[in-house]
Amino acid sequence: MRLLATYLIGLVFGIGIAISGMMNPAKVLNFFDVAGMWDPSLAFVMGGALIVTFIGYRIALSRPRPVFEPAFSLPTSRTIDARLVGGSAVFGIGWGIAGFCPGGALPAIGTGRGEVLVFVAAMIGGMFAARGLQGWLARRARQSAGAETA
What we know:
Blueprint: H1 2-20, H2 25-32, H3 41-61, H4 82-98, H5 102-108, H6 114-149
Helix pairs in contact: 1-5, 2-4, 5-6
């Protein structure tokens, strides 16, 4: 049942991304082109998504627990740090350059277009690079802490 629910949620998300035009890089890039061929329609898509998310969270969090999990898994940190700001900046720059975000690119894989496949490959490579950099920085911090205590 859990797998079926996951599939249906992904299907609804993918259909919504396709209908809204979020998997069309030209439409997305026109949204960012405020000095040229600006297309404000994605602002309405994002606004609609925020409204649905707001209502969905209110309904879900009014329950004692999720349907398929023993407890809710919500972020606890409210810290705005370099990792959050840097990740947001990389996401925004990548979205502005490529016209794809992960949410729009994954359903677009089904189109078989080369630029989608290149974007998704680069995105996966970036995830591995970020994870590797994070591990390297953590090891370096531990080494520095060990050198200070010695």
